[in-house]
Amino acid sequence: MKKLKKLGKIMLIGIVSALALIGVGGFLFIKMSPQFGGKPSPEQVTRYVQSGHYEKEKGVFVNLIPTAMDMDFGTVMSLLRDYWNGIPNKKPKGPLPVEKIDSLEIVQKTDTLTRLTWFGHSAFLLEMQGKNILLDPMLGDSPAPHPTFGTSRFTKELPIAIEQLPYIDFVLFSHDHYDHLDYGSIQKLKDKVGHFYTPLGVGNHLIAWGVAPEKVTELNWWDEVQVEGFTLACTPSRHFSGRGLTDRNSTLWSSWVILTEKERIYFSGDSGYGPHFKTIGEKYGPFDLAMMECGQYDTRWQNIHMMPEETVQAAQDVQAKLMMPIHWGAFTLSLHSWTDPVERAIPLAKSRGLATATPKIGEALLLNHRIPNTPWWESVKP
User: Which InterPro entries match (predicted)?
Assistant: First the structure.
């Protein structure tokens, strides 16, 4: 009996010690890892308060309309059950097809067409009016502070490696979540980018990661900048932010409008459905192309990620002539099959007379010229 008690004490000490080590390790990782980014100065917080979208008492940004994200015990348990059971067709049966490009194709192109290249999820290279623009360039393998905690990309490689990208004139970020803002990508990009544009607060992460402050501009909703023939407008979305355990909603989230004299483009970022889409359409539409969030949704967090049917309606609200579903095709971050977004959104859009684009990763979309729309995902379904 004494031996059993002694063994029990040893096991208990071992378990407690292991938990303590895990706790200390996690605390040190959060405190010391650069992944979690920077924090605002008191002067910046004053500007946030003046934005009209920031609650000083709570230290958080807020949406235009009430957007509850709290889950009761039953909802949490249903999520745990569903994640445990898994989902069919949650990822492709093999690596997705990728069309390769190289820097010479970008630098030496002779046409003046607006060209869009999808990297999967919400990352794009936009070539427009002689400028190279990156949108939410999360080009890493896993959308997490450490690969251990994240899922891997569906492709073995990108259309072009970050190191091979030519000079990038502008980078636009919609918010600071790991599947949109990636520390490793910034480290490789920062010295070849002219300027970064972000919603309020997100620029602090870039500066903490070594980007020169003069190369970062933070914008509030409805702010505009005029730069080299472009109007870049930071527009609302309905979402949230945060990279750590204690910084939820400490930075703003947004969508983006990109205007030139000839063309108008909308990039939704992440968003639940809301009246802001119609307001954006009335102010800046109609759009030649709208890249619309369509993936990583669930009815239990519908306030912050649209269902596919809402994506189609939102595209119509912003007065899109052409819709491209985004936020899918790279990672499994939800409980729907990886092809569910397009299999629901595309038929509905067509039934409503809304043109759609579904390029393969790396396949060029030439605005108003060549619009890829084949169901390429059928060949890689399980």
Answer: Metallo-B-lactamas (IPR001279), NAPE-PLD (IPR024884), RibonucZ/Hydroxyglut_hydro (IPR036866)
Taken as a whole, the chain contains a residue count of 382
Name the token pair of 222: 């409805």
Which is more confident, 22 or 381?
Answer: 381
Cα 192 to the chain's mean position, in Å? 21
Domains contained in the chain, number: 1
Q: Dump pLDDT digits (tens) for 279-335.
A: 999 999 999 999 999 999 999 999 999 999 999 999 999 999 999 999 999 999 999
Task: Characterize the bridge pairing of strands 168-172 and 131-135.
Answer: parallel
Q: For residue 231, what is the DSSP state?
A: E
Q: Identify whether 18 is part of a domain.
A: no
Task: Tell whether 75 is covered by a domain.
Answer: no
Q: What is the CATH number of the domain that holds 153?
A: 3.60.15.10
pLDDT at residue 13, rounded to an integer: 55
Using DSSP, how many helices (H) and how many strands (E) does the chain show? 9, 16
Are the beta carbons of 278 and 107 closer than 8 angstroms?
A: no
The mean pLDDT value for 183-200 works out to 97
In a domain, 131, yes or no: yes
| Domain around 188 | 103-380
* 308-317 vs 340-351: helix crossing angle, rounded to 10: 40
Angle at 261 between CA 259 and CA 263, to 5 degrees: 55
Collapsing DSSP states into helix, strand and coil, what is residue 99?
coil
| Of the candidates 213, 160, 205, 169, the residue with the CA atom closest to the CA atom of residue 187 | 205
- Is 92 contained in some domain? no
Closest CA to 305 of 356, 237, 256: 237
